[in-house]
Design goal:
42% of the residues lie in helices and 20% in strands. The chain is α/β, with parallel strands linked by helices and 462 residues long. The active site is at 245.
Amino acid sequence: MKAHDGMYIDGAWRPAAGPDVIEVVNPADEQVIATVPAGTVEDVDAAVRAARAALPSWAATPPAERAARLAALRDVLVARQDEIAETVTAELGSPPKLSQAVHAGVPIAVTGSYAELAATYAFEEKTGNSTVLHEPVGVVGAITPWNYPLHQIVAKTAPALAAGCTVVVKPAEDTPLVARLFAQAVHEAGIPAGVFNLVTGLGPVAGQALAEHPGVDLLSFTGSTAVGRRIGAIATGMVKKVALELGGKSANVILPGADLARAVNVGVANVMSNSGQTCSAWTRMLVHHDSYDEAVELAAAAAAKYGDRIGPLVNAAQRERVRGYIEKGVAEGARLVAGGPDSPHEKGYHVSPTVFADVTPEMTIAQEEIFGPVLSILRYADEEDALRIANGTVYGLAGAVWAGDEAEAVAFARRMETGQVDINGGRFNPLAPFGGYKQSGVGRELGAHGLTEYLQTKSLQF
């Protein structure tokens, strides 16, 4: 076990204000692998003060220079890609291939995209007799989750730095080690002291202190809708700008005439990726009644192949939460066709890849975010029925539509109340805006839309 000391504040590792530590557990074998300091209100205050002190200089730095620093950061992340992947595997339990390709690879791509945007974005524009300025909003408080620990830090930090903001990050307590690696990468990239700061700690202490700090101008939070409501209430009460990326219960709609086998197999893979710990996962598969039985058979067979291919859930509490949902699904009358609440391993926080059939829209497992490898398959009568079911939750983060005719799929997707829809297996695009409708959040991440979240507008009239 390795004991990590200090917080990254004002360009250096400083001793924590308090003696308490957080134990980091490997969810695959349940062993403590490291400790990090449990940040206090004093640590958060020091980090915010450092960010405020660094703000004028960084905001005044020409965009081309900010772009160069982000490009240097991307290069450091590339050089450390293997170390990043190994760290995420150790603290999250992610399989090595997923850690390498997604947990390490996607943040590199996102950082590079903001290096390019910082150099090309129109921070000034003319409209009539006015010059419109797009200026940094100020100090950003970023509270990030454990499911994609580096990606979520980068998705907030990279656009904030490109915009000219300074940042204080409070990472999830389950996965703080890759956050520390990122702070080291920031330092190696030559980003000035105070521009990026890191405070590890518990949500009710360090997270709340960051949210309530009067020196923070914008709160960016990714996590559960319940916590997002509290963050939003704090921001509203203090008249802060807020960006919230919250829960999801996304629909994978398979229309008649679609390639059923491909749609089902890709849909199952989407749900099982990252052990189901993905807010945008297509956890509701909607199938026309004529193809329903075949789809159920295909999904059950596909899920069975993932028994040894997915990692554990992040901690014991998450495992019990997912098991509870599986048991509730059975109790409410859904038919278990793959998996179940029992663990396939003697050690680790594992849950079997699980598929439910005969799920109806009002069931708990069709309405609430489970955040585990659990797929619900629902039947529909016609396209209007499918649309009603797809839009029939409080969430609207992502989704998918499959059809033999792409135009038909697009027409259906246009009527879905959700922030992002993949058409016939469309690929992930790091430049496309990501964010939700309804209770899935406020604001957007990634690409130019993600950059604008960290800007405020001023007009000069001539």
